[in-house]
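User: Last request for today: this protein with cytidine-5'-monophosphate, please.
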Amino acid sequence: MVIRHLAEGVEVLAPAKLNLFLEVLGKRPDGFHELETLMVAIDLHDRLTLAVDDSGQIALTCDDPALPTGADNLVVKAAEVLRAAAGPDASKALGARISLEKSIPAQAGLGGGSSDAAATLVALDRLWDLHTPAGRLRELAGQIGSDVPFFLDAPVAVCRGRGERVEPLDLNPDVIAGFHAILVCPPVGVRTADAFAGLTPPDRPEPIAPVIDALRGGDPGRLGRRLFNRLQPVAERIQPALGRVRAALNDLGSSVLDGHLMSGSGSAYFGLARNREAAELAASRLGDLGIGMVRVVRCGP
Ligand code: C5P
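Assistant: Here's the final one, the structure of the complex with cytidine-5'-monophosphate:
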């Protein structure tokens, strides 16, 4: 995330993520699933502006009328969780006015709501002068949602547990920024809970090591062959229209894309391109098919 101080408050650019690999290791007694996933941030951002409100209210406005602006929104949840953690004395005065401009589609598997929540935690911790220790902030992030802690450590990490145990990968930023992709966001969404509910965990999970090695190597061709998402067939059963997106990416062929995958629990797909020109060629071919919003993106914070 990128934070900029304004005359009053702060502005945060909250990135989307792609899952380059997602395996489900099993179902846990708490109802969640044990995951192993490789996530990377991309240059598609929501924009938040936050300012202190001395009245003590937490008020969110959002340019997308389809999204809730009450306690159902992860931004409000993040503000409330942080305020509660600051203790009962502090909470009386801690208020915020937050404005959210959405570019990351919802229910797309791109982590938009989670990234907005992580941005809110970091920004309000500064604005409210709380100096919450990093470990505690991660704990609070995990309470808000499984993907929220990743965005505190983005741009690239392996995430385990529910997704909240984050192991950042120390990769050369130039290698990460060298990966270009084409993003397709279909007009239909997939609820994360539905995707997990429709899944039978595998007897023999796919290993994550080859995809990490391929990412480190910086070669899109190698990485493209290692992309994997256990939730993709489930999402395609829930939303049959998604099969058309996969077919359209497949039809572009290996001369244009090095591989393609659904991100997270869907419904967005991405195709890995050799370079920006290949990604733009893919965008121009996909743009007229009516399969969803098409956009060229690059990996990185
Ligand atoms: O943590 P988050 O709120 O993003 O999860 C949404 C839903 O997705 C959960 O309520 C659960 O049904 C499912 N989920 C899961 N295993 C995970 C993450 C999410 O079953 N590791």
